[in-house]
Specification:
212 residues; globular; 27% helix; alpha+beta
Length: 212
Amino acid sequence: MPDSWTEIEYKTYGNTESIPLSDVDGNISDLISQRRSVDKFDSGPLELEQVSQLLGTSMGITTNKEDPNNQRRAYPSAGARYPVEAYIFANSVNGLDEAVYHVNILDNKFEKVNKHSSDHSLDFISGEESNEAPLIVFLSAVFHRSTQKYASRGYRYTILEAGHIMQNLCLVATELNLACRPYGGFIEDAADQFLELPDQETTLYVGLISSM
């Protein structure tokens, strides 16, 4: 591995006026400072309530719940187009079958999509950790929701939205004393097949979740 792959680069302006930054005291500051992408996962089962809180808080509707065409969610979305969908694979969750579930934001529930046994190959996700994590969160993109309004720039907005959601998942997981590791290294076609996504939808981002 080249040294350049492990060296963190910082841009600085050394010969100019500078003002030190400050931290905000409070819970959100603590969560941000405590958040880490873990390397090892506790393979013990999670509880359904933990999983429900994690997804509901990270992605749920926060305003105008009674009006589907005017509601807002826990993360920003360009033009409120919400092109990102979420799925979970319950590898080991008490109260859930070993299956893929869609996160139904509108009705605030999990919907079973298909059933996979825990020995189903997850080799399409880089690293052996994917087989150990009791919960895997998949964020997928329905690009046309955004591109029909913003044309090619809608692709960028969709990817940005997935990043907003994953950061929410990381912070809420920290609050729940769970470990969360975002993954961009996976084979998209295999992930899409695993989730049984329609042609107009594809996987963007993966998060592995376990107990600390």
